[in-house]
Amino acid sequence: MLNIIKKRPAVLLILFFLLSIAIRYPHLNRPLSKHHEFNAGMVLVCIDTWNTNGGPSYSGFCPVLNYTNKGDKFFSSKYANTTSVNGDDLYMSFGPGWFLFPYYFFKVFHLPASPLSLQFFDILLCLLSMALVFKIAKKMFNEESDAMPTKAIIATILFLLNPASLWYFGNGFVHEVMTIPFFLAAAYVFLSFIENGSNITFKRLLLYGILLITGIFCDWLCVFWSGITILYAFFRSRKDKQWGNYIIVTILSTIMAIAIVFLVYGHHVGYKNYFTLLHSRYDYRGMNEENSGSLFSYYWIILKNYLTSYLPLFIALLILLIINRRMIRPAIIKQHPGAFSFIVLLVATCLLHHFIFPQFSGHEYAVFKSALFLSLCTAALSTNYKTSYIIIGLFIILSIAQFYYINPVGAYSFDGERYDYAKTIGNSIKENASADEVVYINYKNGLAEPQIMYYAKRTCFGSPNLQDAKVRLADQTYAQKAVWFDIVNDSVTSIIHFSK
Q1: Which runs of consecutive H residues, i.e. helices, occur in 286-338?
Q2: Residue 80 pLDDT more than 60?
Q3: Which pLDDT value is given to residue 456?
């Protein structure tokens, strides 16, 4: 077995991939809960609605955040960006790809819209991303012809087993996860361009453009990558005219991708409405006067997110820096001729994204894009392999410990709430609310979480008290009856049916 592993590094990586699944196993197929499973709930609610109404064409391929019973529509939700003419709450902050890809995956393989199906899809994205990181690392460390590409293997293990990857490539499906494989594939093609300008051929540029378009269809990350690399290409084009072709293709691909997103959403809700929506979302998520006073607090949250996501990786990197007594640039620059530039571009893309969207970057998953450059930088310092193996072993132990500390095994989450709270509440709503009743709950300051809605198979409207719910029903044009669920400490304490 050891001889096979030495001759076939892919076997070793598959073993580590299986280890990552084993680490996640206690949390697979458990009820939707916290730690950003909110996003998984959004996707599953949307897929449920599409399945019920004939597919994504029902909403013009716009993600839907509600169910479609008589009592489920014509409302305003904190979690949605706009309400369509059909009374559906739509989510349009990012391209619809991160909803559409799992929907069609479930259709092709006849899978139900369930947490386990989405986790299975997410783990397949992890496998694809692992393979791409391995290819990137082999090229960057000039190990493509090596029988045992040690640094590439180390980089891949670091990417695969850090706490962020263990969670977001499992339970925490979100738009940043969906775009990562396309971003990694584009980065791999770009690395070949840095290697030699003659690699900037029509076929590779075509492939690169398709990857950018698909990535932007899921998340805006590749737009930032495009902007940073265009600036780099501008300086390279002075000596190598092939980079001019890169600039043209990248600009056209980025514009085309953004135009596709605008066409999908604008056609359904109106282009002016969608533009207004984007402006309001950036006012909330981005860099503006209203948020400027909170910038320090946002950046402090981002720093904490890096620690909760990558603390074991930072420890490994720090130890290697101390052992080598040299900065990371000399360690990288001896590898691929464009390795240092590649790392700088990756770092610049992530920092620019954090800077432009400071409020959004307060979400932990916003730092997930940084896993690649952190893994590559740490692997670059692994010059003494015996020492590196010990450090990697320490990294794996610390990653597993941090993963289970943040996501405890058992019935209760890190903050003491039961993992099954959403399923328990949702099932109660499902059993006690008829299709023509509007569902009102007082849960969490009047906010209905999509995790609860998924299990209830109903849209749950927030209302602070019963009297307020009655006022809201009076304003509801398309329903005559409602039911009020009083929820205390994640349990339904009373159910009251009423009508206009």
Answers
A1: 289-292, 295-324, 328-333
A2: no
A3: 97
Range 423-458 burial, b when 16+ CB lie within 10 A, else e = bebbbbbeeebeeebbbbbbbeebebbbbbbbbbbb
Single residue among 339, 373, 406 that ends a domain in this structure:
406
**214 located within any domain:** yes
Residue 78 pLDDT exceeds 50? no
> Has residue 2 got a pLDDT over 50?
no
Distance CA 112, CA 368 (A): 27
User: Structural domain of residue 198, as residue ranges?
Assistant: 2-26+113-406
What's the Cα-to-Cα distance from 56 to each of 104, 113, 216, 460, rounded to whole Å? 10, 14, 19, 22
Pair 46, 254: CB distance under 8 Å? no
Please check whether residue 185 lies inside any domain of the structure: yes
Which residues have C-beta within 8 Å of that of residue 101, sequence separation ≥ 6? 121, 178, 218
Quote helix, strand, coil % in the chain, to nearest 5: 65, 5, 25
| pTM for the structure as a whole | 0.93
> For residue 399, with 0-12 CB atoms within 10 Å meaning exposed, 13-18 middle and 19 or more buried, which class applies?
buried
8-state DSSP, 25: G
What DSSP character marks residue 447? P
The residues, any chain, with a CB within 8 Å of residue 49's CB and separated by 6 or more, are: 58, 59, 64, 66, 67, 68, 88
**CA dist 176 → 125, 222, 353, 361, 416 (Å):** 12, 10, 12, 11, 27
Copy the structure tokens of residue 216: 């932007």
Average pLDDT score, the chain: 90
Beta-bridge partner residues of 147:
none
What letter represents residue 245's amino acid?
A: N
The angle at the Cα of 33, spanning 16 to 450, to the nearest 5 degrees, equals 120
**Domains in the chain: how many in total?**
2
Residues 369 and 473 reside in one and the same domain: no
Q: How many CB atoms lie within 10 A of CB 190?
A: 26
Mean pLDDT of 406-417: 91
Structure tokens at 335: 């590898």
The predicted-structure confidence for 454-487, as pLDDT tens digits, reads as follows 999 999 988 888 998 898 888 777 788 999 999 8
Q: Specify whether the CB–CB gap between 427 and 38 falls below 8 A.
A: no
At position 319, the amino acid (one-letter code) is I
Q: Say yes or no: 392 and 487 in one domain.
A: no
| Residue 69 located in a structural domain | no
Q: Which residues contact 310 (CB under 8 A, 6 or more apart)?
A: 162, 163, 164, 367, 370, 371, 374
pLDDT in tens, 100-110: 999 999 999 99
